[in-house]
Amino acid sequence: MTNVPNVKLNNGVEMPAEGFGVYRIDGFENCKQAVKNALSVGYRTIDTAQQYHNEDAVGAAIEESEISRNDIFITTKVWITEFEYAKTRASIEASLKKLRTDYIDLVLLHQPFGDSYSAYRALEDLYDEGKIRAIGVSNYNSDRYIDIQHFARIKPAVDQMETHVFFQQKEMQAYTNKYGTKLESWGPFANGKHDIFTNPILTKIGKQYQKTASQVALRFLTQKDIIIIPKSNSIERMRQNIDIWDFTLSDADMESIENMDTNESSFMNLHDPKTVEWIVNSVPEKK
């Protein structure tokens, strides 16, 4: 079983550098089994969200696991429908019940829209009360991240962003490094686009280390000090995705991969008004 190293967040809390994401793992039993499989092969971070509608399955898997709760790092995210001080607090109480725990290791605001400042203040107070060990944000581009970190009483420990070899978030990471926040990658496989699993550059590099293109793509991110949360329903792929800690890419390899950056999203552009409309429409307009 692979041992994943920890990274230290800005408040001293340690978090595994690689975790398991459960986005779009639907069905209670299906998700519960996937989390159990992930824990069995060595994952100790499980990343969920209120909007994924599978916190209950994650909680059941962790409760049924033989691994101590103290050895598992749980991340969840608050959706924008719950962005308001009292609603955010209530939503975390609901998440605690679904996750079957009395504390959550990391809670993120899922999107930078709606009444996010009130929501963040709620997370700060829940942090003070010990119900959350670390707080942060997700999908906060450089401009929104700089704003919230400047005015927040408790600085974000993590900013979870789409980050992969084709969208390396170099500017974003420069700012998170500057202000002491860890960049965490969601979508480290670019949603399978750009033929990432058979990419000739990644494949050629991987052959030097007896690794696959996908393993090289993940190792590149970790060597950039980016936390990763790959997802798979296959236990064999889970094993492959976590088996990246026994090799180090050379400086030349890293440079070759850096040159693959297109600086374009493979999912959605959060600066696009149509994308923002689609997200905020989950909350009724105030009349």
Automatic annotation (TrEMBL):
InterPro entries: AKR, Aldo/ket_reductase_CS, NAD(P)_OxRdtase_dom_sf, NADP_OxRdtase_dom. The record marks K77 as: Lowers pKa of active site Tyr. Substrate binds at H110. It comes from Nicoliella spurrieriana. Residues 29-260 form the NADP-dependent oxidoreductase domain. It comes from the Bacteria. PANTHER family: 2,5-DIKETO-D-GLUCONIC ACID REDUCTASE, NADP-DEPENDENT OXIDOREDUCTASE DOMAIN-CONTAINING PROTEIN. Keywords: NADP, Oxidoreductase, Plasmid. CDD domains: AKR_AKR5F1. Pfam families: Aldo_ket_red (PF00248). Transmembrane segments: none annotated. This is Aldo/keto reductase. The active site is at Y52.
